[in-house]
Write a structure and sequence with these properties.
single chain, 205 residues, alpha+beta, Ribosomal Protein S5, domain 2, Alpha-Beta Plaits, 2 domains, five-stranded antiparallel β-sheet, four-stranded antiparallel β-sheet, 5 helices, 11 strands
């Protein structure tokens, strides 16, 4: 599946709070890129808010938002994690985690009330979190003698790609960045024109 050339995440941690029938719902939003980061954020919040009744959460990862997880943390099934997840997806974010901490106020909200409260808390924090646009780029390396590099540079300049020199031992070359939508075209052109195979050395997402 082709990744998008860019995606929207949040620039920094944020929090927001709503109240519903004496219960406090405190939503925390974090930029995350891995399961490990998400687990750490959750663990830290549980320590900080150890007296809370619930720590419900959801997160979306990957440039194409293909990894999605959520938890109701002992609330009735589907009343917390899913509303939080829907709020993230509706806002158009990925690589974002939202945790909603609930301090129980003594009054039951019922299933519709819980769905509304958790969803509204997540929406509230995502509304104030500053957006950040990130570019998705594949990074390739082509090793070739200096006298042949001008042919590759000409091709890269035609499509306004970012590139810079590299040295592997005694062999020189060029490293360049290319977006997902242009990758196949650029790689095929280099292979057919210069008869070299670019090596994918990293991805930036």
């Amino acid at each position: 599946m082709l990744l998008p050339d860019s995606y929207t995440t949040i620039a920094s941690n944020h929090s927001a709070e709503i109240k519903e029938k004496s219960s406090r719902f405190i939503a925390f939003a974090f930029p995350v890129t891995t399961d490990e980061q998400a687990k750490k954020q959750l663990a830290d919040l549980k320590k900080e808010h150890h007296a809370a009744a619930h720590h419900c959460w959801a997160y979306v990862l990957e440039a194409d938002a293909s990894l999605q997880k959520s938890s109701d943390d002992r609330e009735p099934s589907g009343t917390a994690g899913r509303p939080i997840l829907r709020a993230i997806l509706s806002a158009g974010f990925t690589n974002v985690m939202v945790v909603v901490v609930r301090y129980f106020g003594g009054k039951l909200l019922g299933v519709p009330g819980l769905i509304a409260a958790y969803g509204q808390a997540a929406e509230a924090v995502l509304l104030i979190a500053p957006k950040k646009q990130k570019q998705v780029r594949y990074i390739y390396e082509v090793l070739m003698s200096y006298e042949h590099q001008h042919h590759l540079i000409r091709l890269l300049k035609q499509d306004e790609l970012k590139f810079y020199p590299t040295i592997q031992g005694e062999v020189e070359g060029i490293i360049f960045e290319v977006s997902p939508s242009m990758r196949d075209k650029i790689i095929d052109t280099i292979k057919k024109t210069l008869l070299v195979e670019p090596k994918n050395i990293a991805d930036e997402k």
